Amino acid sequence: MMRARAIAAIALLFTACSALAQRSTGGEHSYPRGLVRVILPFPAGGGVDAAGRILAQKLAEALGKPFVIENRGGANGNIGTEAAAKSANDGATLLFTGAGFVTNPSLYKSVPYDPVRDFEPISLMALGPNVLVVHPSLPVKSVKDLIALARSQPARIGFAGSGSGSTPHLAGELFNVMAGVQLVHVPYRGSGPAMIGLLAREAPVMFLPAINAGGHVATGRLRAIAVTSRERLQAMPDLPTVSEGGLPGYESSQWYGLLAPAGTPLDVLNLLNAQVANIMQSADMKTRMTNDGLVPIGGSREQFAAHIRSETEKWARVISASGARVD
Q1: Would you say the CATH fold of 129-245 matches that of 34-127+253-322?
Q2: C-alpha torsion sign, points 123, 262, 92, 83
Q3: How many CB atoms lie within 10 A of CB 141?
Q4: Which of the ends of the chain has fewer CB neighbours closer than 10 A, N or C?
Q5: Are 298 and 279 in contact (CB under 8 A)?
Q6: In this predicted model, what pLDDT tens digit does every residue of 220-251 receive, in sequence order?
Q7: Superfamily of structural domain 129-245
Q8: CATH class label, 34-127+253-322
């Protein structure tokens, strides 16, 4: 009897210790428990998609579980964003998106999500500035030249955009508002057709994503006159910012960020934020981002929340002043 009790006591102690060890090392409470779905509200092949796939792969490597991109394009990102907002808030579904997340509420009469109420910010991964380029036939070599030409020819110079409400479109509208000019938006069905129109001089100006500009500028097919970021790009150190070039205070960038449905557990949010920060601070990612004309960030959740608020307010003013609408 005594021996049986002793064995039972040892077994109970072993079970308790095992449970404690499992809890202390993550065990059954570790994240993620399985596959994580990362909704990307745009078709495959674009800048947001490329950035999202890079981050998903790095998160999978760091956390040992698959982070799978699910492209849910349509309505300029509204369809996929709504799907993410309505997903379970257990960390098994995340949203990777860009600037349309904060501009759509002002561009559309209504959108099926609230960027603040329906989501928890995780991390701002990177900024993707545009390069202000012109066709070489346009007699413009600086921001001041472009402003002067546009003022002398109001509503006669077109700028190419990859669709109404796209980052290149809104960058041009911001330029119009701040410079007091009337460059005319010429919308195309995507970046590829917009580039064709630009090179054919159908629309001789474009706020072109930096990642797409380098090759055309190097071969002389386009002339770069400024970068739209707050600071000069490491990949193009001799190119002034629009602000430096003659339009003080101008700044417009695509951005890439990771969010989760509202109510996702705080420990999951903090874990993911720390992982993204580690990834973006790594030497290989910094090199990769810089070479692609991107600015790596990977800041705190609070910084991303502040970025969302400021970008929402900024673009609401620009869209209202320009009259830009999608529906």
Answers
A1: yes
A2: negative
A3: 11
A4: N
A5: yes
A6: 999 999 999 999 998 899 999 999 999 999 99
A7: Periplasmic binding protein-like II (3.40.190.10)
A8: alpha beta
